[in-house]
Amino acid sequence: MTTIALLPDARAPLDHATARAAFADMLDGKVADDAIATFLTTMAERDETSVEIAAAAAELRARMVPVSAPANAIDVCGTGGDGAHSLNVSTAVAIVVAACGVPVAKHGNRAASSKAGAADTLEALGLDLKRAEARAEASLADLGIAFLFAQSHHPSLGRLAAVRRAIGRRTIFNLIGPIANPAGVTRQLVGVARPDYLATYAEGLRRLGTTSAMMVSGDEPLDELSISGPSSIVRLGACGDRSERIVPEDAGLKRHPADALRGGDAAFNAAALRRMLRGEAGAYRDAVLLNGAAALIVAGEADDWRTGVEEAAEAIDKGLANALLDCWIAF
């Protein structure tokens, strides 16, 4: 008979040891669903702390199915939940940045709050997800890119799927997804849909040993840098420990209306991504260039925004990013 563990009272912030024990019990199936729902909802209502974020991520990492990756690999991933239903910016950024020579271990999943998540769009582009999963380490080594399907690498989350659906709102597990990369990357561009939460999130990453990261949030809010207006950024580690604000003009880009990035289903988003990689100008390209520049700065491949934009644009304009996608699909 499974032991039913008791969770602590989540109305007040938890210390590291208590939080780790609580998340361990949940992920190991030792807690009743109603108790999990109360715990997660209570924590979300008061806002999770950096200690709790780090503790939850550490327990999820301890149970993940890992993959090996080059030491300089990065990830570009967002928490989701911004409700923007936009085109797949981070997925496109992963391809462009990899075409710039930076290995990208792209962590992602199917859509939760949008019509097409990274997995859905890559599948519509022709990527065989099962084959890509089986050859992830090889494609990282040979092509410099891999897709790490969250549901395959985090089986412990499967135990919580039903209760998370029943809760019907974001919980701490939405926040820790981007920081539980199966390749163990320590350099990341992380989009967070709450500008007021960036500093807390950054401290969580610091506790987990992240060496270089940007936590970014568009003012709309968006879980990425906005091509429509200002964005907030918290830098961590090698790319600078500071907070800043940025607008597209700082990177030499013009602003576009937010609805110019409106996405659709997987087929719609995949077609838009292909057109962009083949040279189509517009809001999608500029959003990818802006966020790509951030990833290149995190990776130490660009010193400033304009240089990063130039490098990303070159990877597109020379056909390198589009060719990489073709090679990845055929790999």
UniProtKB/TrEMBL annotation:
Gene: trpD
Gene3D superfamilies: Nucleoside phosphorylase/phosphoribosyltransferase catalytic domain, Transferase, Pyrimidine Nucleoside Phosphorylase, Chain C
UniProt-listed InterPro entries: Anthranilate_Pribosyl_Tfrase, Glycosyl_Trfase_fam3, Glycosyl_Trfase_fam3_N_dom, Glycosyl_Trfase_fam3_N_dom_sf, Nuc_phospho_transferase
Organism per entry: Alterirhizorhabdus solaris
Residues annotated for anthranilate 2 binding in this entry: R164
GO biological process, one term: L-tryptophan biosynthetic process
Cofactor note as given: Binds 2 magnesium ions per monomer.
Family according to the record: In the C-terminal section; belongs to the anthranilate phosphoribosyltransferase family.
Protein name: Anthranilate phosphoribosyltransferase
Enzyme class: transferase
Subunit structure, interactors included: Homodimer.
Catalysed transformations (reactions): N-(5-phospho-beta-D-ribosyl)anthranilate + diphosphate = 5-phospho-alpha-D-ribose 1-diphosphate + anthranilate
Residues that, per the record, bind 5-phospho-alpha-D-ribose 1-diphosphate: 78, 81-82, 86, 88-91, 106-114, 118
Pfam family, one: Glycos_trans_3N
Organism taxonomic ancestry: Bacteria, Pseudomonadati, Pseudomonadota, Alphaproteobacteria, Sphingomonadales
SUPFAM superfamilies tied to this protein: Nucleoside phosphorylase/phosphoribosyltransferase catalytic domain, Nucleoside phosphorylase/phosphoribosyltransferase N-terminal domain
